[in-house]
Structures are given as structure tokens and as C-alpha cells.
Amino acid sequence: MFVGVGTGADLELINYSDLDITAIDYSPDMLEKAKTRFKNSTIKFLEMDAQNMVFEDESFDYVVASLILFRCTRC
Questions:
Q1: Successive 10-residue mean pLDDT values, the chain, 75 residues
Q2: Which H or E run contains 34?
């Protein structure tokens, strides 16, 4: 899972085609850029607030949250 995925720049650093990835961001504009960038991938992009995620516990093996903590008011 990628929290605060933005435009998806970090996704280019991994072999995303072999992984089941969910990516969230609060900004619909940023998500549109990421969706366009990875339109031929299986990545699931969701508009969601990182401070109010709606996933079951233990839904993901790994969570990447690069460069978002300075924006969280309740982290």
C-alpha cells in the first residue's frame, strides 16, 4: 500500500507489475495524474484521507508513506 501516492513518482522505483498495490491520496488532482501515468497497470487508486483509512486490520503486507507525515495533524 502506498499512502500519499501523489502523482505516483515512487511507484516507478519498484516493479509494480508483479505486485498487488493499493495507492491512496487525499488529492483527486494528484490521483488523476497517477492514474494517467499508470493507466495500463493493475494498481488500485483510491481517494482517501490517510488519517481516516477504511481498511481492515492487516490488509497489507507493507505500507509506504513517504513524505506525508508533515501533513498529518493526528499521526
A1: 94 92 96 97 96 94 83 60
A2: helix 28-37
Look at the chain and report how many structural domains it folds into.
1
- CATH number of residue 28's parent domain: 3.40.50.150
Which H or E run includes 37? helix 28-37
- Residue 51: what pLDDT? 87
Cα 22 to Cα 2: distance, rounded to the nearest angstrom:
6
Range of the domain at 55: 2-71
Dist. CA 56–CA 58, nearest whole Å: 6
Are the beta carbons of 49 and 72 closer than 8 angstroms?
A: no
Which of 37, 40, 8 shows the shortest CA–CA distance to 24? 8
